[in-house]
Amino acid sequence: MPSKDDFPVTDSLRGDFIHDAREELDSMLSSFREAEAESADPGAAYQSFLRSAHNLKGLGGCFGFHSISVISHLVEDRLRQLRPAEFGACTDVVAFIDRMTGIVEDGVEPDEASLRLILDDLAGTTVSPQGDRAGSRTIVIVAGSGTIGQLVRHGLEGAGYRCVSHSDPYEALSFIVRTRPDAVVCTAELSGLSGFDLVHGLVSMPATANIPVALLTSHDAAHPRVKALPRAASRVHVGPEMVESLVAAFGRETVPA
Q: 134 near 126, Cβ under 8 Å?
């Protein structure tokens, strides 16, 4: 257990994080404004922005600002769906920067309810890569294969959902617990933790038990691991109909193009 003398060190480190976070956020805003004004190479500005967002994502949780990690991941994920040349037109990133700046300036981590309101507000300001207003329902996609993840994301965004992608199942689990998305899709093959294990964990934990979850797998219903899946989870076969199957599993009809 920390001694009384340890707390000034903790406060000092927390202060250092707040200072560094301000600098990263200022850098992110400058990178965007330069790309927006076409006064800098868009590719360089884009990469600089992503580096700062990645740094904040890693540091936030270490110093008790998990909200900064979550929002950093969302904006990082948002930009990875764009080409660098499109960065300067992605004006909604300013809302993410403003929210993180507000948290850093307050110096207080938002409680769960406040963070939920922040994330809902950010979801409402985000425009999908297709240029349409993103859906109000959020689906987390945990995919070991970049190809499958991209196909699923493209299909679900076309159906009106807002999607957030993860490749690391442990990072995804933490994100899901903190943000409580409307649904989760995961592939069977993941690094370090299988999709089967992730599904069992999500269904068994009280914090996530009510979140609809679907597993993408090439195994048929007779496979032992498929048969052992919780009844609350949906099995969706990898193939041409998987997006339609996911939309049906989550109880929402596809939005016409």
A: yes
> For residue 145, which of 238, 209, 231 has the smallest C-alpha distance?
238
CB 139 within 8 A of CB 185: yes
Q: 87-92 long-range contacts, Cβ below 8 Å, gap at least 24?
A: 87/32, 87/35, 87/42, 87/45, 87/46, 87/49, 88/32, 88/35, 88/36, 88/37, 88/38, 88/42, 88/45, 89/36, 90/32, 91/36, 92/125, 92/126, 92/127
Taking the C-alpha atoms of residue 139 and residue 184, their distance in angstroms, rounded to an integer, is: 5
Q: Is 217 helix (H, G, I), strand (E, B) or coil?
A: strand
Handedness of CA 111, 58, 19, 12 (dihedral sign): positive
Sheet holding 234-237, edge to edge: 162-166, 138-142, 183-187, 213-217, 234-237
Residue with tokens 């919780």: 230
Structure confidence by residue, pLDDT tens digits, 36-53: 999 889 999 999 999 999
Element (H, E) at 104: helix 93-106
What tens digit of pLDDT does each residue of 222-257 get?
A: 999 999 999 999 999 998 899 999 988 887 533 333
CA dihedral 141, 145, 151, 156 (to 10 degrees): -10
What residues have CB less than 8 Å from 225, skipping those under 6 apart? 196, 219
